[in-house]
Amino acid sequence: MNILVLLKMVPDVIEELEVAPDGKALDTEFLRLIINERDAHALEEALLLKEKHGGQVTVLALDAPEVDDTLFTALAKGADRAVKITALEPGLTTRATASRLAQVLPTVPNLCPADLILTGCQAIDDLDGMLAPLLACELDRPYLGLVSRVEADPAAQKATVLKEYPGGVHGEFEVPTPAVLGIQAAEKPPRYIPVAKVRAVMKSQTIESVPVPPTADAGPPAVEVLQLAKPEATTHAEMLEGSPEEVAAKLGEILAARGVL
Amino acid sequence: MAGNIWVLADHWRGQLSEITYELLVLGRELAAEAGGSLQAILLGHNVKDLAAGLGAADSVLCVDLPELAEPSADVYGQVLAQLFQAKQPQTLLVPLTNALWEVVGVLPAQLQIPFVNFCLDAKMVAGQIRARCLLYGGKMEATVTAPGPVLLGILSGARLADQGRAEKAPAVEEVAVTPPGSSRVRFKQYIEAEAGDVDITQQEVLVSVGRGIQTQDNIALAQELADAFGGAVSGSRPVIDQGWLPLSRQVGKSGASVKPKLYLACGISGAPEHVEGMRNAALIVAVNTDPQAPIFNVAHYGVVADIFEVLPVLTEEIRRRQASRAA
Ligand SMILES: Cc1cc2nc3c(=O)[nH]c(=O)nc-3n(C[C@H](O)[C@H](O)[C@H](O)COP(=O)(O)OP(=O)(O)OC[C@H]3O[C@@H](n4cnc5c(N)ncnc54)[C@H](O)[C@@H]3O)c2cc1C
Ligand SMILES: Nc1ncnc2c1ncn2[C@@H]1O[C@H](COP(=O)(O)O)[C@@H](O)[C@H]1O
Questions:
Q1: Which of A14, A141, A176, B169 lies most in the core, judged by the most C-beta atoms within 10 Å?
Q2: Distance (Å, whole) CA A156 – CA A162
Q3: Which residues from B are below 8 Å from A23, CB to CB?
């Protein structure tokens, strides 16, 4: 079966995030971009499906700093093909991305129809729409999100899919393929790949670049960002300072006073 | 009618969810600002009884059809698009819940209107929605605006649910729609959660570990502290994804909602999906090396420190206090 996995580069939130001088976006100068965590799970699920059923896994990403590293890493993990969409105007919104992807995917040779398009269930920088359902609408395919297991039945052109609900409950669904699935978690943690192997792949394999021409299609009115800032906390923790021993003693007092001990 | 605010009610397995009440509180504020009324939208099958719980709204628009028994992007999208065309509300508030996830996702396309995700707050400014959204795992907040009508995806915790419960029964209007086709995605069954060795919702003390714990072996440090309290260890999603703790120990949106006397967050950043499951704990203490970690905005007490330095010393302190209490 053929699987297309969409990978998005997002800021590494473990680093300190700074706002650009215009006060409306992140300062990109020192920004480190990494793969959106859920997308690594989407890739892992795709690789597990390929191991079971054969076929091809293609990873696709929009051009962004560090994106080549991410695509080569995906190839080193076992993806067969990596596609980079270039020549897009910067700062494309999720909605614009969905319609541009719907426009370009059918034009890339041997890409569509993929039996499954897997995305992460959510990206941490999403503001104006969720990509997977929007893309599913544009391509007129069924969609399910928050997926944590995919049992494919390629012969019957369907998949049995588990979706997460609160409290550890799962819903079982039957999804006809081709379909779009937003992956919450792969069945196994995403595999680790040594840097040396990624380096080797950089020498032996290539990334296909596919340019997308600009479009005049405006779509619905856009969401306008007025300001981006660190959250104005209505409450903030009272901070306890000192050596670990001093902090522990203070906490001990507080917990005793609160009747926790 | 222009100016009306709609709240899409979330109900799952026969019960209205807490977030529905939270949205009704926010919706009431917006309706007052927009000079319209507040209407709850109730879709499902055999759900008329649930309408009684939506008294905080001026009225309930209800569509009750067998095809709507489980939320599905295909059929809910079709039905909501029909309602929307017919009644033209100013703003539609939708809860970002697991049950409605796909429905929320397709609505911007179905209705062809702007969507604003991760909203924690909204108000009307000069007749237009202005919303505050939590991005980047809770580390940044965007203030955004969009011309109406707008679809707002609301995070859990935007308002206090209790203020959205009302005794009075609302007026219920059953709306007839052109029957939607059947959903391509077919719901088959729910698979109940596997019972864990401990029920974290019943614990008085939870020592909760996040990605900062680094390895499965290090969880022993948290277990020792939990033992000193007579409590249990819980965790955030990455710890469960790695298989270091079972799913029954996960706190948050797709895990458990917990309300212990003490929730000690160790190496947890405080992403909205985690906070959703623990913000109602009586006392929250967070230990994190990053002074900017959003967890400090929900914790009562915070320590900027390495958990590997704090945990063992704190365990000793608690053991000493428990021993002297027992003596
Ligand atoms: C639909 C959906 C549902 C989700 N459901 C859940 C859910 O139910 N529960 C849940 O938890 N998440 C859930 N998530 C994931 C959530 O968005 C976050 O990714 C997750 O909560 C982050 O976990 P974390 O805080 O442990 O990791 P991180 O965000 O990586 O944070 C780790 C923290 O540890 C700190 N740290 C590192 N080393 C140390 C040290 N030595 N000492 C002290 N501090 C240290 C870092 O500063 C950082 O703040 C969900 C996501 C989605 C999209
Ligand atoms: N610009 C993008 N490039 C590639 N994939 C994307 C992009 N935006 C979103 N996606 C995919 O869609 C998922 C959900 O993103 P979002 O809808 O933005 O929350 C991500 O995890 C990716 O898999």
A1: A141
A2: 18
A3: none
- Ligand 2 pocket mutation, candidates A5, A6, A93, criterion most atoms within 8 A of CB: A6
Model confidence pLDDT, tens digit, residues A203-245:
999 999 999 877 766 677 789 999 999 997 778 899 999 999 9
Task: Let me know if A80 is exposed, middle or buried by CB neighbors in 10 A (0-12, 13-18, 19+).
Answer: middle
Q: Are A192 and A153 in contact (CB under 8 A)?
A: no
User: How much is the pLDDT for A214?
Assistant: 75
Beta bridge partners of A261: none
Which ligand 2 atom lies nearest to the CA of residue B117? 19
CB B111, CB B24: distance < 8 Å:
no
Rounded mean pLDDT for each run of 10 residues along chain A, 261 residues in total = 97 93 93 96 98 97 95 98 90 89 91 93 94 96 98 97 96 98 97 97 96 74 93 87 98 96 90
Contact A240 B303 (CB under 8 A): yes
Mean per-residue pLDDT, B218-224: 98
pLDDT at B1 over 60: no
Looking at residue A218, what is its pLDDT?
A: 65
Using the mean position of ligand 1's atoms as its centre, give its distance from the Cα of residue A45 in Å: 21
> How far apart are alpha carbons A71 and A35 in whole angstroms?
9
**A197: distance to nearest CA of chain B, Å?**
22
Kindly give the number of the ligand 2 atom that is closest to the alpha carbon of A60: 4
| Residue keyed to tokens 């209107």 | B113
Nearest to A129 among B115, B135, B248 (CB): B115
Alpha helices in A91-151 (DSSP H): 94-104, 131-139
Alpha helices in A163-213 (DSSP H): 195-204
pTM (two decimals) = 0.96
- Nearest atom in ligand 2 to the alpha carbon of residue A123 is 19
Contact A171 B187 (CB under 8 A): yes
Residue B2: predicted pLDDT:
66
Residues in chain A: 261
Q: How far from each other are the two terminal CA atoms of chain A, in whole angstroms?
A: 57
Please name every residue paired with B140 in a beta bridge, in sequence order, or none if there are none: B135
Q: Can you tell me the distance from the alpha carbon of B59 to that of B39, in angstroms, rounded to the nearest whole number?
A: 5
Complex-level ipTM: 0.96
Cβ–ligand 1 contact at B260 (below 6 Å) = no
